[in-house]
Records
---
Amino acid sequence: MQSMRKFLIVIVNVVIIAAILSFVVLYSGYESEDYYRRQIEYFENTTVTMENVTENYLEGEQRVCDVWAQYINSSNMTIDEAIEYIRSSHVLENTSAHLVLLDTLTGLSTRPKVGTADEYDISYQSMDLLKNTDWIDEIGKSINIPEARVLSPEVIGLSDDALIQVRQAVYSVGRGDMTIDEAVAAYGTFTQ
């Protein structure tokens, strides 16, 4: 009888332990699934929030570009005048703006290329970004500088050293980097 009683106690303990283990396995599975669902929800909320922040930022940047476009178009500026205007009104040192000619996909930047002090030429010819430009009119006013107002020294054959010296001197004086006397004294030392 006593052995039967011990056997019954062992069976009851095994059932209790099995029930506890089953509960732990089921509860941890439920908690794991709930944690996974919460992580997905947090990720979705973060993604939507970042999408809204990015959209608001880009809309703000587009408004700045629209203001530039309105002023440049109303002033009938050349591309060099337009880039100087944008350069003078663009106050963030770690960013740049580009004016791109859609027919050649080349243009000018407001900041020089890395490692240079006076190389502002840019090209998007190797990128597929601007092959279809139908989207530009949808996002804002693009700057409209007529081709006739864009003077390229290379195209019209004025890229000799004397012209480069004059252009660089005028550019330096115009930006306020040099006085006229300093530019005259530096004539012959400018590089393209």
---
Amino acid sequence: MLTVLSSLNLNAQTACCPDFFLSDAVDICPTEGACITDPAGGSQGFMHMRAACKETAHVYTVFPNEPGFTFTWTVSGGTAFSSTGNPNTIVWGTGATGTITVYISNLSGTCVDSISEEICLIDGPDASFTASPNPVCQNTNVNFTNTSAGGSSYLWDFGDGNNSAQEDPLHQYDTSGTFAVTLTTYKCGESDESTQQVIIDPIMGIATSNTLNAAITVYPNPARTFLTVDIKMQYKHATLEIYNLLGNKLSQQELQHTAKANVDISTLQAGSYFIKVLLDNGNVSNIRFTKLDR
């Protein structure tokens, strides 16, 4: 059976003293199985120690906090903002445990008491994540992988007005641009944030209504090594450009009075691309094709 570990009142002149106890401003929940002790060697059962986050400021108050009393603090495993007063702020270190001892007395000396408590120190939330692929085209899934430590719940802000409480969400952006994505990691009153930029590139459009499309055929599609571009209209000069889905131009080829042209795609990785045909009469067409593995 688990019981809560109470503060230990050390020997003192307590006949006229209130029943003092120590309180933390936040309630820290350790993971299951952590911060359990057996102070009586099994005779009283296992007990939960009070927990606090490492390298984090905690505000402790001795109650009742009545006027006319002095409070003197001794801390190990952390640093107190002050040695006297009530309440007091303690920044804990990186060790496994710390100890707080508070000596209490009134001005007349009729009440002299002390509270001593061992604190279990646990890792607080440390937010981090990865986004892949990045950059990526709009309307394509971005995989957000949560690599945070010490978190129990999460909130994602994707920077486009959408959010998620999933641990490892997927998200698509329907507009291009640069978006600041923030992950907030929570654990029992503590939080930490991590922000990264995700770059969303536009997809090149396909001109479906341009009359040039009906005059051009690209085959085979899909293809492995070469594409044939067949232009069934008169022109003096044409430019063929190949783009990836991020809008990056990968190659360019010039044509003169040629009805058919072979375009070498053997060096491209398998995937989807656009071939852009620009004629000297001002007509422009974008045609999507698929490159296969060899």
